[in-house]
Amino acid sequence: MNHHIVRNSLKQLSPKLAEITENVLFGDIWQRGVLTPRERSLITLACLAALGREKQLAWHVHFAKQNGLGAEELSEAFTHLAFYAGWPAAVTALSYLSEENRPCR
């Protein structure tokens, strides 16, 4: 999923939410120094998987890779998550680790 397509779609649907996302979420929260972008990606992916927010998983898996997480680390994180968020959540999240960053069918 292309970040620019998502951002442009959000701008068309809700310009204010797009502005808040860019300026507050990615411009402030993701930039704070206490946690690294890598750590923030792990937290975000765990929350998205645990809450079943599948539509956001593909983009955030790609973003996590940009933040230095490898496929093996992501696989381990989702495997660990199975015991806290449930097997279906972990298996669904693992499906987003394919080359195309989309669910395996």
Automatic annotation (TrEMBL):
<dbReference type="InterPro" id="IPR029032">
    <property type="entry name" value="AhpD-like"/>
</dbReference>
<dbReference type="GO" id="GO:0051920">
    <property type="term" value="F:peroxiredoxin activity"/>
</dbReference>
<feature type="domain" description="Carboxymuconolactone decarboxylase-like">
    <location>
        <begin position="15"/>
        <end position="98"/>
    </location>
</feature>
<dbReference type="InterPro" id="IPR003779">
    <property type="entry name" value="CMD-like"/>
</dbReference>
<dbReference type="Pfam" id="PF02627">
    <property type="entry name" value="CMD"/>
</dbReference>
<protein>
    <submittedName>
        <fullName>Carboxymuconolactone decarboxylase family protein</fullName>
    </submittedName>
</protein>
<dbReference type="InterPro" id="IPR052512">
    <property type="entry name" value="4CMD/NDH-1_regulator"/>
</dbReference>
